[in-house]
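Thread: Modeling a multi-component assembly for a lab meeting

Hi all, long-time lurker, first post. My supervisor asked me to bring a structural picture of a complex we are working on to next week's group meeting, and I have zero experience with this. I have the sequence lines for every component (622 residues in total). Could someone generate the structure of the whole assembly? Inputs are pasted exactly as I received them:
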Amino acid sequence: MTASRAGVGAPDDTVVVYRKRRNVELFMDLVAVSIGLGGWALIGLDQNGTIPGDWPWVVGLWTGMALAVHIAIRIRLPYADPLLLPLVLTVNGLGLAMIHRIDLIPDPVFHDATTQLVWTGLGMALFIATLFVLNDPRELQRFPYLLFLAGLALLLLPLVPGLGTTSGGSTIWIHLGPFSFQPAEAAKVVLTIAFAGYLVDHSEVLSKVGRRVLGLQLPRVRDLGPIVVMWLASLAVLVFENDLGTSMLFFGLFVMMLYVATELPVWPVLGALLMTLGAWAGYAFTYHVKVRVDAWLHPFNNVDQNYQIIQAEYGLAWGGLTGRGWGLGRPGLTPLAKSDFISAAIGEELGVIGLMAVVMLYALIVSRGLRISLTTDDPFEKLLAAGLSFVFALQVFAIIGGVTRLLPLTGLTTPFMSQGGSSMVINWMIIAILLVVSHQARRPRRPEAPVTQRGFVADFASDDTAVILP
Amino acid sequence: MSAVLVTALRVAFLALLWFFILLAANVVRTDMFGRTVAAGSPELAPPPPQRKRRRSGPTTLVVTEGRSSDTQVDLADGLIIGRARDAGLTIDDDYASTHPARLIQSVGGGWQIEDLTSTNGTYVNEVRVIAPTTVTLKDDIRIGRTHLRLEK
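Re: Modeling a multi-component assembly
Sure thing. I ran the full set together rather than chain by chain. Output:
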């Protein structure tokens, strides 16, 4: 690296210093907490005319949890990005409030929101643990191949007989005694770290170009290995686990990181071609993909089969511009309204204005992640931050696009919002890693001696006489 | 509750949501550029290591074996070890490059050694350094034929 860590773009004798901005974060955290609590209080007001009696507990607990995370950041990462935590707290709070609202529909009522709150707490605990354990993100760079194998193993774990279970047509769950877990969620982090470590070492080779066709620099044939391996792995997930979303998420992630590492437009083009080929094969040969595509293009041709997506569309239409209001819509009519279709429930009760706000919040989370990737000057951290942000971007695009019928529906989770423990815990950990990287990138440092660039040249010039030692 | 109040609260909630987004946009705007300060400014000095670490942690780098044997230098973040005269620790070794390795202080106060793509490599306990590797008082660092060690 030629530029000093904190001084990107600055002349050699000056350094850019970022402010800590922890008080800004605290203020934003409190607004974020009030949004979640406001939604929760409005449900009670709209349905019964009063705020539920346990409000001191709810307010105290949610504020306390947010403050605990904030204080951990103050202690460990004083220079970390000030916006990520408030954004995540807002989305998480909206999700909890909406799950609580859907809990109240059946009689007797459910208590899924309490379970989800416990998972949020566990996610925050893992977040704080990551802050204290991970001193230097570059330590993660060490074992890319091992992590790649571990990630693939996690992805394919539900196929092990007796361990994996099929629900909703997809085999993506494993059961260990009373606990169930979606290993693909953990694979998200593991594989992103593995890809970043691998691409840092190989980006130079992978950006060597071969022939030029139609104005596009093609890569050399011998460099196609990694993308083909990832393509086959994604196809395996699609064919054997019937999970369109996971398959697309991991292949898209790899192609995107390949593009970030090599800056060659041919990789995304090639990736899109392979993805189209895979999707066509899926449509032609598997029942699962065909159902999803038909539900996307012609939902009313088979009303029984496409009941869920049709209900979601009616819900969104009923919500209109400003929504029915918290607790006044009928999101319970859509199956899986708490998990896959939570954005439809938001759209019904908060309207298009509320749903767009949620999309905007995710866009801000992704943009802060990419900003962290731009700020740091370590190539591994750059790739890691870009990859982790892209996971969020792709997931939100796929699931909200699926619910609003922009795309065929894929069963991905809505990060921090939809019901489910594995996703919640892992997403909090991803945010922790991003914040550690941003703290490293933003903290003030003296510029390092610009030795690396001269060092390379000098090394090669003066080492001709040296011999390799036994 | 009256219908008017319900509507007012509904609109107020959406307004709060978008007000939060505007606040966030403002933080993005004010966070766009940092301040530019001179490289020698005291505020860039690394935070003083915690006293507990300082007492137990290594403070000097000593050459234990090789022609520059017994040379020692105080540890500093970004210390360059190599044959060049402008290196932080100059070693007299024909098998070493001019700037083969650099010491980095990690966040917790420990030390790591990073290889700057030298021809013959940097070794910690005879294992070649690929990524920044943590070194402690017990580890033996080898560059060319020179062995180094951290000491208190």
